[in-house]
Amino acid sequence: MGALPKQKISRRRRGNRRRLHFIADLNLVPCRSCGEMKMSHHVCPSCGVYRGRQVIQIEARRKAE
Fold first, then answer.
1. 50 with 41: CB under 8 angstroms?
2. How far is CA 62 from CA 41, 57, 59, 65, in A?
């Protein structure tokens, strides 16, 4: 015989467990150097700056595309 639950899971406890299954909203903040929106604690994808330092080199995008 398989395992059975000892007690009924209340609606509140069940809901608290299920609320973590959804994707959380992104925490977007403006970049201090270029002003573009980026995720906090991440390198800015448009200029490549993190905490005031140039971390990665971003190539200029073509405007003709």
1. no
2. 28, 16, 9, 6
- Write the CB contacts of 30 (distance below 8 Å, at least 6 apart in sequence): 36, 37, 38
CA distances from 25 to 28, 39, 48, 53 (A): 9, 11, 23, 27
CA distance 10 to 16: 10
Q: Where are the domains of the chain?
A: 25-60
pTM tops 0.85: no
Longest dimension (CA), the chain: 68
- With a cut of 80, say whether residue 53 has pLDDT above it: yes
